[in-house]
Amino acid sequence: MNKSFLSNKWLGFGISLFNLLYLLLVGVLAIWTFLYEIEFENATTFNIVYITASVLFLALMIISRSQFITRIISMLLLMPVFMLVVFNEANPAIYLPPLIVGVIMFFVCTSSATTKVIMGTIYILMYFVGLVGFMLISTLFGGSAIETRLDASLTDTAIIEQYDMNKIDQLNANSVSPDGKYRYYILDVQDNERGKVIIVVEPNDMDIKYRYFTLVEVGYTSRIAKFATRGVTPDIEWISGNQIRYRFGEGAEWKTSTINIPTEKNYLRFLNIA
Questions:
Q1: Which domain covers residue 33, as residue numbers?
Q2: pLDDT digit string, tens, across residues 201-221
Q3: The 3-state secondary structure of the chain, one letter per residue
Q4: pLDDT at 125
Q5: Domain total for the chain?
Q6: Which of the two residues, 10 and 51, has the higher pLDDT score?
């Protein structure tokens, strides 16, 4: 009875058609992480749902592995996964579930040996040559500096100990301009010299909010101030909607900056190019 049920061609077709949702999910997620940073209301809940969905779709794809649509999905899935790896190299929770699903289905599906050899060769070149090339480009154009945003989520004690984090928290609580159009944040920069502290301003009215997550626009940033030594906690105050004043350390001279956000989005932010 069960064997007959699972071998029903219309059921198999329906399952394989449903599996397209997973390919769509991974593709949309790749596009979102390229264009934005995703902030989830509860990252743990997302990870649980994401992994559960991946396991469920893996089971459905294995059941329908001989269906034409599932074979196509199995051959194409590793393409958007590659983009997830590139855009989220520091966040394996985003790319590992679909990567595991993609690798398993590549070998399990009933596509011809010729198709697997061709697509396998493409993926070997894409992942190994592509990722090595990505790292080289990031090193050449992005530099070797490590930039860390100073906020409540920071766990690196070596950085935390250098700053007045209570003051940083107060600054972050008042980071949005009076008109709500802009917001600032503070970067700690580790490089081969003394490092830097950078104040960055970005739009606050371009995020896309959904019920359980927000797509944060991070492609339009302006680095309004740099201090050539790490560990100095700045003072920052909004003067008006588009003017901000700051100083690095008590007793230092206050300086004023007018906000000038770039008109073109930086699509190469994942290369760590400012």
A1: 2-142
A2: 999 999 999 888 999 998 999
A3: CHHHHHCCHHHHHHHHHHCHHHHHHHHHHHHHHHHCEEEECCHHHHHHHHHHHHHHHHHHHHHCCCCHHHHHHHHHCHHHHHHHHHHCCCCHHHHHHHHHHHHHHHHHCCCCHHHHHHHHHHHHHHHHHHHHHHHHHHHHHHCCCEEEECCCCCCCHHHHCCCCHHHHHHHHHCCECCCCCEEEEEEEEECCCCCEEEEEEEECCCCEECCCEEEECCCCCEEEEEECCCCCCEEEEEEECCEEEEEECCCCCCEEEECCCCCCCCCCHHHCCC
A4: 92
A5: 2
A6: 51
